[in-house]
Amino acid sequence: MERPRRLRSPLLRPLVAEVELSPKHLILPLFVKEGGEMEEVSSMPGVFRHPLSGLPRVAEEALKAGLGGVILFGVLPQEAKDPMGKGAYAEDGVVQRAIRLLKQEFPELLVVADTCLCEYTDHGHCGVVKEGPLGFYVDNDATLDLLARTALSQAQAGADVVAPSAMMDGQVKAIREALDRGGFAHVPILSYAVKYASAFYGPFREAAQSAPGFGDRSGYQMDPRAGLWDALREAALDDLEGADMLMVKPALPYLDVLSALKGRFAKPLFAYQVSGEYAMLKAAVLKGWLDERRAVLESLFALRRAGAQGILTYYALEAARWLKEA
């Protein structure tokens, strides 16, 4: 009779466990705005929009917790947005200022910049919107130059990593060329290579105030119904265009995709435990239906087991504390 339980004794379980999770594997997403007070996101209890003046406090917490880094998302009032998303690549843009502030005060903190236009366009889409015979569409090639300008401005501000998330064909190539020409060949690209048109982004769009004003993003983000071939194709293209790291987004609903990429690409893989995943866990916890610590850590271990080298999660600070208490 086979007895797998022999290896599950309290003394043996830690010895035979293969999946490691530590604070260094976690990246904390941060929403940053120009000024005012810190604001809690109603659909994400415990997550806040931080004014620039409040960023150093959070950065210090991230460093003390031993996190792998932070990733920045800008938040602009609607009246400051425009059709071309100029705030994304402005020298004095909110993210550019945040990067300078953090790198000046905490040079040892890894700062990743999300590279997209949706938080800065008045229509809420990730690129240049034009009218066609069937209505609006996002002009892929017209958007590439704006994404490249955004990445270059982020690198000039001091970003350690740029992370293009617009899902435009050719965006990694355009950004890599712009960075190299601009003297930033050393700045790596973390590509949102496999990003689905997901219902799990809803709370993020409230937090970043970036919901599309019309239509949706299914014309450029991936179809959740597509087979693995679509994910492998997208990842392979970004790999060939010069991405240094690849990301899957959302995370838990796409463990199969993450695992498939792990077996095919010799590059670090990341997973983004997105706002809807956080909100589901938090809502169940607030209802008393889940043990927060156990449920969150279990979800993070699942991502590590599937192949994620790093995980972007709004639970980064709490998870780091729980891991140290274990």
From TrEMBL:
5-aminolevulinate 1 binds at residues 205, 217. NCBIfam families: PRK09283.1. Its EC number is 4.2.1.24. This is Delta-aminolevulinic acid dehydratase. The active site is at residues 195, 249. Coiled coil: none annotated. PANTHER family: DELTA-AMINOLEVULINIC ACID DEHYDRATASE. Pfam families: ALAD. Mg(2+) binds at residue 234. Transmembrane segments: none annotated. One of its GO terms (biological process) is protoporphyrinogen IX biosynthetic process. Zn(2+) binds at residues 116, 118, 126. It comes from Thermus parvatiensis.
